[in-house]
């Protein structure tokens, strides 16, 4: 038996199936990064359907699920991956999380080539066109050789959460600009008064400063816009007290 061919070579973004399923493109008829072309219509799925294993990064000791609904659509071999039940395999749980969240999208395959011809007859040792091949395994990989071999769907549209209601908008207060302007003027006057009290120095200056600060606080409380929250008021008081 010939050694199986594997493609280890990014993936693109995809839409969002059930909790344990993703739809994938396994192989396309385009020239891949390894310089070869696999013809999807030449794929023999007979042996694979007896053992439809999906591996993690082409590692035979790390199965993560099975594949079904394999078929050729246009120039691509596509199918559906179903992950092992949650908790059965830590590797499968990791793969599920990475693929369902869109962090990892790459798909690859291990095959046994049957009929092979050079892409360029003048370069028989160059890139090859594999016209007939047998699928041995499918893998979730970080970087696929076939850039079209990716996750194509992660969730049925009906499972997507609808957008929530828009946040209510604060009512416009027509008198707000005028009150803010008056407040700014009051703050400037208060700052000047505090500066004069401090410059007076001594115990009298400290007492005068405290009295003026109390008066300022009362005036600010009366003049503040009603639409401002307590947090906004405290932030402005802290700023104006410096």
**What is the approximate shape?**
rod-shaped
Task: Give the distance, in angstroms, between the N- and C-terminal Cα atoms.
Answer: 83 Å
Structural class: alpha/beta
Helical content, roughly?
Answer: 25-40%
Number of helices: 5
Q: For the report, how would you describe the main beta sheet?
A: 10 strands, mixed
CATH class of the largest domain: Alpha Beta
Care to give the gist of this entry?
The chain is an alpha/beta fold and 242 residues long.
What does this protein structure show overall?
It is rod-shaped, with a radius of gyration of 35 Å. The protein contains five helices and ten strands. By secondary structure, it is an alpha/beta fold. The protein has two domains: 5-156, Serine Protease, Human Cytomegalovirus Protease, Chain A (Alpha-Beta Barrel); 176-240. It has helices at residues 46-50, 90-100, 176-200, 202-223, 230-240; strands at residues 5-6, 21-28, 37-38, 43-44, 53-56, 59-73, 76-83, 106-118, 128-141, 151-153. Mean pLDDT is 80; it is low at 8-16. Strands 1, 2, 3, 4, 5, 6, 7, 8, 9 and 10 form a ten-stranded mixed β-sheet that branches.
């Amino acid at each position: 038996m010939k050694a199986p061919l594997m493609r280890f070579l990014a993936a693109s973004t995809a839409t969002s199936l059930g909790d344990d399923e993703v739809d994938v493109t396994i192989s396309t008829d385009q020239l891949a990064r390894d310089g070869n072309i696999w013809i999807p219509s030449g794929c023999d799925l007979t042996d694979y359907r007896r053992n439809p294993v999906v591996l993690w990064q082409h590692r035979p000791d790390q199965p993560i699920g099975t594949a079904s609904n394999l078929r050729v659509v246009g120039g691509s071999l596509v199918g559906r991956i179903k992950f092992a039940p949650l908790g059965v395999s830590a590797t499968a749980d990791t793969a599920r999380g990475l693929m369902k969240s869109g962090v990892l999208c790459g798909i690859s395959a291990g095959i046994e080539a049957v009929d092979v011809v050079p892409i360029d007859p003048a370069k028989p040792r160059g890139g090859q066109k594999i016209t007939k091949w047998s699928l041995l395994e499918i893998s979730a990989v970080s970087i696929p050789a076939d850039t079209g071999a990716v996750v194509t769907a992660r969730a049925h549209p009906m499972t997507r959460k609808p957008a929530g209601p828009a946040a209510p908008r604060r009512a416009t207060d027509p008198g707000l600009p005028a009150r803010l302007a008056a407040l700014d003027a009051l703050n400037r006057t208060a700052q000047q008064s505090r500066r004069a009290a401090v410059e007076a120095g001594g115990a009298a200056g400290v007492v005068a400063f405290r009295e003026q600060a109390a008066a300022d606080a009362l005036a600010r409380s009366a003049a503040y816009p009603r639409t401002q929250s307590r947090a906004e008021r405290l932030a402005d008081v802290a700023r104006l007290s410096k």
